[in-house]
């Protein structure tokens, strides 16, 4: 029956739309912490963003955002609902050794899979350690809009 086929198609389409909007799936979480330095001095007020790295046409999902404190310390955590395992990454936007160049330097650190937790609250933190922002990093880019 054509009515049943159309209903089934609409229902399937709604499920796909809900899944891509994060309404279905299972909740997973991740957390990063560490210390940022610029020439061995604390890198204060550096912007950091924790994303679930998505491929294809889907934009990365922002899980948390913040700044390093006066001592360069930071801690971010967040969760996302996905059908597949999340791929957390930390973007660090800074101006160390770059005061007058437009936009900011962006460094991306990908979280190892073993630090992804099932559920909305991470039970382990990935300790990125002390990160010296002076110098150049492989894969480093420039970013004006912090995405």
Automatic annotation (TrEMBL):
Signal sequence segment: 1-21
The keyword DNA repair is annotated on this UniProt entry: no
Subcellular localization(s) per the UniProt record: Secreted
GO CC annotations on file: cell surface; extracellular region
InterPro entries xrefs: Transthyretin-like (IPR001534), Transthyretin-like_sf (IPR038479)
UniProtKB keywords: Secreted, Signal
Family: Belongs to the nematode transthyretin-like family.
Protein name (Swiss-Prot/TrEMBL): Transthyretin-like protein 5
Species annotation: Pristionchus entomophagus
């Amino acid at each position: 029956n054509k009515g049943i086929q159309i209903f089934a198609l609409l229902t399937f389409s709604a499920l796909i739309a809900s899944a891509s909007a994060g309404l279905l799936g299972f909740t997973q979480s991740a957390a990063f912490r560490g210390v940022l330095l610029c020439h061995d001095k604390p890198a204060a007020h550096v912007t950091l963003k924790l994303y679930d790295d998505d491929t294809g046409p889907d934009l990365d999902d922002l899980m948390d955002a913040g700044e390093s404190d006066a001592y360069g310390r930071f801690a971010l955590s967040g969760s996302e609902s996905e059908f597949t395992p999340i791929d957390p990454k930390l973007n660090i936007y800074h101006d160390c050794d770059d005061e007058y160049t437009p936009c900011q330097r962006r460094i991306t650190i990908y979280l190892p899979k073993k630090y992804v937790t099932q559920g909305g609250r991470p039970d382990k933190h990935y300790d990125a350690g002390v990160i010296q922002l002076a110098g150049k990093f492989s894969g480093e880019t420039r970013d004006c809009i912090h995405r």
